[in-house]
């Protein structure tokens, strides 16, 4: 593949200005197609600077990043003289920021770049965290332009800390999914309003359920009511007709195991289910393990059984049953 211009903002000292994509891919240990995608989507578009290192601890605290994760992030900080940051890593960080920034206001899932071998140190492990930190001011400016309060901005962006903590619990198995998920937050595509997260897009508001305590009917109702006022106020040109949710939590089989008055059963009954369609590239059994147990490798007979839900999931899988990803709607 021919040499191509790296483009973007003026690179820091030590950054390669003209790149060979095959060489970058080899040095990063990723497919060249993934590097080419970043190069094509980012092009010569502007990146965004990281916050000053002195300001980073306060920002990480504001983003609910736990002390152990914050310490790793600070240890790998992209200082100009850091030996951890090779030219190809600096190129990828700069172009990943540009790639996500170019879609500011977008609300579809977006990969910021290739999955990196994370055992090579904090710079590799947290490269997309640094991109998120660089975009925090950018997306907060987008929020201000739409009249969104700082309170909503910060509680939404603090999903970073929650996801880093989940990834640590999952022994680093979670981040490949999370790095794309968090580009929704960094582009203004999703907002945490009370108990639920609400994703813009099309004619429906997609609902997501963060790990943030009991999903009581009162909390869910309050979140839906808040969203009904939030989106017409801040995105008046967008027209939504329903809330939509795609989740294994909407699998009717759960009702065979859970009490009728359980929070999950009552949440499920809010929705009118759409006809089942097998989701492309998604295994509901894997997603159940990811979200209910935060593990993908623990044998079934060793999974925790602390809750009715965990016992139901494990027993169903041990009986060679399967879970299904269902989608439902609630009129707006």
From TrEMBL:
GNAT-like C-terminal domain location: 195-329
Residue spans crossing the bilayer: none
Domain of life: Bacteria
Residues annotated as domain N-acyltransferase N-terminal: 55-188
Pfam families: GNAT_C (PF18164), NAT_N (PF18082)
Alphabetized InterPro entries for the sequence: GNAT_C, NAT_N
Name the record gives this protein: Acyltransferase
Native species: Rugosimonospora africana
């Amino acid at each position: 593949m021919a040499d191509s211009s790296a483009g973007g903002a003026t690179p820091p000292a030590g950054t390669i200005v003209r790149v060979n994509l095959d060489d970058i891919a080899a040095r990063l240990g990723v497919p060249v197609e993934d590097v080419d995608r970043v190069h094509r989507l980012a092009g010569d578009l502007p990146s965004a600077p990281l916050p000053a290192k002195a300001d980073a601890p306060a920002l990480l605290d504001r983003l609910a990043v736990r002390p152990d994760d914050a310490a790793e992030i600070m240890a790998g900080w992209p200082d100009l003289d850091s030996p951890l940051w090779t030219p190809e890593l600096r190129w990828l960080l700069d172009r990943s920021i540009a790639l996500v920034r170019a879609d500011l206001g977008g609300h579809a899932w977006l990969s910021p770049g290739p999955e990196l071998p994370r055992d090579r140190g904090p710079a590799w492990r947290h490269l997309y965290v640094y991109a998120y930190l660089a975009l925090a001011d950018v997306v907060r400016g987008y929020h201000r332009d739409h009249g969104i309060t700082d309170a909503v901005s910060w509680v939404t962006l603090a999903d970073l800390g929650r996801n880093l903590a989940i990834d640590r619990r999952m022994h680093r198995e979670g981040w490949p999914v999370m790095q794309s998920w968090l580009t929704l937050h960094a582009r203004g595509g999703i907002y945490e309003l009370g108990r639920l997260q609400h994703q813009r897009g099309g004619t429906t508001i997609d609902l997501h359920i963060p790990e943030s305590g009991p999903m009581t009917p009162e909390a869910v109702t309050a979140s839906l009511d808040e969203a009904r006022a939030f989106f017409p106020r801040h995105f008046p040109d967008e027209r939504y007709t329903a809330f939509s949710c795609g989740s294994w939590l909407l699998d009717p089989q759960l009702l065979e195991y859970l009490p009728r008055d359980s929070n999950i059963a009552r949440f499920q009954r809010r929705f009118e289910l759409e006809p089942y369609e097998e989701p492309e590239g998604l295994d509901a059994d894997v997603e159940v393990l990811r979200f209910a147990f935060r593990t993908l490798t623990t044998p079934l007979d060793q999974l925790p059984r602390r809750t009715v839900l965990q016992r139901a999931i494990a027993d169903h899988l041990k009986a060679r049953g399967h879970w299904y990803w269902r989608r439902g709607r609630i009129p707006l």
